[in-house]
Write a structure and sequence with these properties.
The complex is a heterotrimer of chains A (about 300), B (about 260) and C (about 325).
Chain A: H1 12-20, H2 26-31, H3 37-40, H4 44-47, E1 53-55, H5 56-66, H6 74-80, E2 89-94, H7 100-110, E3 123-128, H8 135-156, H9 165-170, E4 172-176, H10 180-194, E5 199-205, H11 208-211, H12 216-237, E6 240-245, E7 247-252, E8 255-260, H13 263-269, E9 272-279, E10 282-289, E11 297-300
Parallel strand pairs in A: 2-6, 2-9, 3-4, 3-5, 5-6
Antiparallel strand pairs in A: 7-8, 9-10, 10-11
Chain B: H1 14-22, E1 46-51, H2 58-69, E2 82-87, H3 94-107, H4 114-123, E3 125-129, H5 133-141, H6 143-149, E4 153-159, H7 165-171, H8 177-192, E5 198-204, E6 218-226, E7 229-236, E8 241-250, E9 253-256
Parallel strand pairs in B: 1-5, 1-6, 2-3, 2-4, 4-5
Antiparallel strand pairs in B: 6-7, 7-8, 8-9
Chain C: H1 30-38, H2 44-53, H3 55-62, H4 66-80, E1 84-86, H5 87-97, E2 100-101, H6 106-111, E3 116-117, E4 120-126, H7 132-146, E5 150-155, H8 162-168, H9 176-181, E6 183-187, H10 191-207, E7 211-217, H11 220-223, H12 229-249, E8 253-263, E9 275-278, H13 281-285, E10 290-297, E11 300-307, E12 317-323, E13 326-327
Parallel strand pairs in C: 4-8, 4-10, 5-6, 5-7, 7-8
Antiparallel strand pairs in C: 2-3, 8-9, 10-11, 11-12, 12-13
Helix pairs in contact in C: 2-3, 2-4, 10-12
The chains are: A alpha/beta (about 300), B alpha/beta (about 260), C alpha/beta (about 325).
InterPro entries (chain B): P-loop_NTPase, XRCC2
GO molecular function (chain B): four-way junction DNA binding
InterPro entries (chain A): DNA_recomb/repair_RecA-like, HR_Repair_Mediator, P-loop_NTPase, Rad51_C, RecA_ATP-bd
């Protein structure tokens, strides 16, 4: 049983050309690469590539070394253990004002922490679609954070890795998007943007907003394409991705259920989901889905 | 030797002659009196089993297989006949066949050594596993030789005739499911049409599709009434008669009423 | 022209069925192959078709005798066609080669009539976050700790966390590293990568059977990637073909996770009950030999067997408990 060339990433026209010449299987093409150079150029190695097989031990060692991003808010971090890791997609959901954007700001700062401190020593990219981005609030958070960081530095007597308010603000890149198509184009062109910079976290706040104006039928296709590209990027640059998603209402018989937008197929595609809510001045976060398959909740203050 | 089209008389090929001389009383006539009350299915006849995609048709196929391969001496409905199964769906597995054979032996109070009977029965069944469209086509081409080498084969079952439709469609976008089924059916029909075997094949059908393949003699439409109850709508094209037969799955045996 | 009959061994392996080259058969010398190419006869199956349809033309082109052509046809069919096996021999071969992989979960093994049987495709479906990946990892853990086999894990959306899996091995601390090293994880992001991986696994297992379990988590992530109905289904078609080949000819158990989504038809005026729909379409729905449906209930998970390899037992449900080491 042979692998048909239909299954490769060759464009349809090339496949038809090859089939007209009698080449139906990958093994045939490989046996005659020289003769087919005019048709294939040198693309074949790339197309026939098998992704790397790693064993779980190697992956475990990599995971231990890279760790996860935390907020350094003791209560909240109880549920963030091993959640926001490189190459995963985490969803923050909840009503407006439940603290999602604020936690995102904090993550943009924490990602910059040097490795010896548990951070990634990297930069952040904040893609905003809903005008929640507040640079003064961010600055405030950075100030508070620096206080703790500098006292830690003094205690551990490390003199390198200086962080300043300015450097923290500068290491957070910002893109403003309005429509769904813009969002997708942005993600598709992001590999050029990311080249050379050490961005380790991408926050998209929120993804519900730009898709609201799109037709329902187009949304599904766009979301899938979106996820595919995000995964490719996160794999290529070893990034963690956080998305914020608004809540919506679904009807089941006579009940109206409040759930995050985009339904089950979206829920399937994200790796973790955290539900935020606010009760007076207390914030509450519940981990609904994670790679560790635990469901925990915590109350925290911002 | 193919039939010379300019000559009116029918020229038989070697295999055809051999099969004609050898297929004495071993047809599967009488295998299912509920579905074929007037006798049959006879050699060279074609039976299409159709129904919606999600309806279980394999129970009926397994029933045909098991009753064909079991020895005639224990039951009128058993035919001591060989069967070829062209398997593209991989839903019929050997354990299931054995379970159904055991259930039938039990039902008919057969006292002889079960193991020996099962062994002999299984030896009459030939399974061709097809993993691609090419496999299926080549399987059809090899049927002639198989029938020649195994004179007792009277039943050929294809599950299902239009397998790998989506791959075929990828290469020719205008191909419809029906056209693909037609192409594959014509291919197998032309190969085995005079070889004195009965052909049973499965073709999934959409609810509204009323298209019919030519050259079929009987069409059985399968409907699932409940978890273990089926309705078989039998249509005979020689006399345009049509009737319904109910059946129930009981202890691994399909019981027709 | 003198020819020798090449010793055609019936092998149950599918050999290359492809382009005609002069080293397939002594009759097919380079000139004949060139002549055939001129008439668009490029592959083995083209030639067989040509012989079946119009032998005279082939006689003319090749200048071979009828008998030689018949023999060539016979040879090609035997070597390149699918293997026709007698059911009894098939049964004996299966008994020798196949295995039952116990799941390590008592009630699940009972539900599955012993465990997971090699030679079959099992689908694990459920709503998002119902425990599908967790069940796959529990099963992998049991196989890895009770045998020396490898387990393949194809991860399409980065749901595999080695840290989480390591936690499940808390009992076997000293062997943890060795156990981890036998779980082979491949992360795929596109359909060609996925199919290339499956074919390379086929090549590896053809040489030596180092693994009896292949887990694909999850199929919808690849299916959803494209909206074109024909492309989606033809992708599934190719996938199904290679999966069927792997289970039957390479003696594997293949577990595929699939998503159930809740849909409500109609708009607000016609409020309806939400219906469950299994993803990947109608074509895929008939493919798995067994279907295990998961439903999460806080600390436990209800397992429902909706399609079985042999027969659905009268009691087709059981309840699994979440523990730190997997399902129990």
């Amino acid at each position: 049983m042979n692998q048909n060339i239909d299954t490769t990433a060759l464009p349809r026209s090339k496949i038809e050309e090859l089939k007209n010449m009698g080449y139906h299987y990958c093994s045939d093409v490989e046996a005659n690469l020289e003769d087919l150079r005019s048709v294939l150029n040198n693309d074949w190695e790339e197309l026939a590539k098998v992704p790397k097989v790693e064993n779980a031990l190697e992956i475990f060692q990599k995971e231990v070394l890279s760790g996860c991003i935390l907020t350094y808010n003791k209560e909240l971090d109880k549920i963030l253990q091993n959640v926001i890791c490189p190459q995963t997609i985490t969803e923050f959901t909840g009503f407006s004002g439940s603290g999602k954007s604020q936690v995102c700001f904090q993550l943009c700062i924490s990602v910059q922490l040097p490795k010896w401190c548990g951070g990634f020593g990297g930069q952040a990219l904040y893609i905003s679609t809903n005008k929640n981005f507040n640079s003064s609030r961010l600055r405030e958070l950075a100030k508070n954070f620096l206080r703790d960081y500098n006292s830690l530095k003094v205690r551990t007597q490390k003199t390198e890795y200086n962080l300043t308010e300015e450097s923290i603000m500068q290491n957070i890149h910002y893109i403003d998007i309005i429509s769904g198509e813009d969002l997708l184009s942005c993600i598709l062109l992001l590999d050029n943007y990311l080249e050379g910079k050490n961005i380790r976290l991408i926050v998209i706040d929120s993804i519900t907003q730009p898709l609201k104006t799109m037709e329902v039928s187009a949304r599904f296709g766009l979301l899938n394409r979106f996820f595919q590209q995000l995964r490719i990027l996160s794999n290529q640059f070893d990034l963690a991705i956080v998305l914020t998603n608004d809540l919506t209402v679904r009807f089941n018989e006579k009940d109206a259920i409040i759930t995050p937008s985009f339904g089950d197929s979206f829920y399937h595609m994200v790796n973790s989901r955290i539900l935020f809510s606010k009760n007076y001045s207390v914030f509450h976060a519940k981990l609904l889905k994670s790679l560790n398959n635990t469901q925990i909740e915590a109350d925290f203050y911002l | 030797m193919d039939t010379d089209s300019s000559c009116k008389s029918r020229i038989e090929s070697g295999p055809q002659l051999f099969r004609r001389l050898n297929s004495s009383s071993h047809s599967i006539d009488g295998i299912n009196p509920a579905l074929f009350p007037n006798g049959g299915p006879y050699p060279n006849k074609v039976i299409e089993i159709t129904g919606e995609l999600n309806v279980e048709k394999t129970d009926l196929l397994v029933d045909f297989i098991v009753k064909s391969i079991l020895p005639t001496k224990f039951s009128k409905e058993w035919k001591s006949s060989g069967v070829i199964l062209v398997n593209t769906e991989f839903q019929i597995n050997i354990f299931r066949i054995i379970k159904v054979i055991e259930a039938h032996l039990l039902e008919n109070n057969v006292k002889e050594s079960k193991r020996h009977l099962i062994e002999e029965a299984l030896k009459s069944l030939i399974i061709i596993n097809c993993y691609s469209l090419e496999d299926t086509e080549l399987a059809f081409y090899s049927l002639e030789k198989l029938l020649f080498n195994n004179g007792n084969i009277n039943l050929i079952i294809v599950d299902n005739i239009a397998a790998n439709y989506w791959i075929a469609k990828l290469n020719k976008n205008t191909l419809s499911y029906f056209q693909h089924a037609l192409k594959m059916f014509d291919l197998i029909f032309n190969i085995i049409k005079h070889l004195n075997a009965t052909l049973v094949f499965v073709r999934h059908e959409n609810k509204d599709s009323k298209k019919l393949l030519r050259n079929i003699d009987h069409q059985i439409k399968v409907e699932c009434i409940s978890e273990d109850k089926f309705n078989f709508q039998m249509t005979n094209f020689d006399d345009n008669s049509s009737f319904n037969v109910l059946a129930r799955m009981e202890n691994n045996i399909l019981k027709f009423s | 022209m003198v020819f020798k009959l090449i010793n055609d061994m019936v092998s149950s392996f599918q050999l290359q069925m492809d382009r005609l080259t002069s080293d397939i058969h002594s009759l097919l010398n380079k000139d004949l192959v060139k002549e055939l190419h001129k008439r668009n006869i490029y592959t083995v199956i083209d030639l067989i078709k040509a012989i079946q349809v119009d032998r005279k033309v082939v006689e003319k082109i090749s200048k071979l005798h009828l008998r030689e052509i018949v023999d060539l046809n016979k040879f090609l069919l035997k070597k390149y066609g699918p293997c026709a096996e007698n059911a009894f021999e098939h049964y004996q071969r299966i008994i020798l080669q196949s295995a039952i992989l116990q799941t390590g979960i008592g009630c699940l093994d009972k539900l599955l009539d012993g465990g997971l049987f090699t030679g079959y495709i099992y689908e694990i479906c459920g709503l998002p976050s119902s425990g599908k990946t967790f069940l796959c990892l529990s099963l992998a853990r049991h196989i890895l700790t009770t045998t020396k086999d490898q387990v393949y894990y194809i991860d399409t959306k980065h749901d595999f966390s080695a840290t989480a899996f390591r936690h499940m091995l808390a009992d076997s601390k000293d062997q943890a590293a060795e156990i981890l090293s036998r779980l082979l994880v491949v992360r795929v992001h596109s359909r060609p990568e996925f199919l290339n991986t499956l074919f390379s696994i086929k090549k590896i297992l053809r040489v030596k059977q180092t693994s009896k379990l292949l887990i694909i988590d999850s199929l919808p992530a690849l299916y959803f990637l494209n909206g074109n109905h024909t492309e989606n289904n033809s992708f599934l078609n190719y996938t199904v073909n290679i999966l069927n080949y792997l289970v039957n000819e390479c003696n594997l158990v293949i577990l595929v996770t699939n998503l159930i989504t809740l849909w409500s038809d109609g708009d607000i005026k016609k409020v309806d009950v939400m219906k469950e729909r299994i993803s990947c379409g109608g074509y895929w729905a008939n493919v798995p030999n067994a279907r295990i449906k998961l439903k999460r209930k806080h600390e436990t998970c209800i397992v429902n067997l909706t399609k079985a390899v042999k027969a659905i037992p009268p009691n087709c449900e059981c309840e699994l408990k979440f523990t730190s080491q997997g399902f129990v």
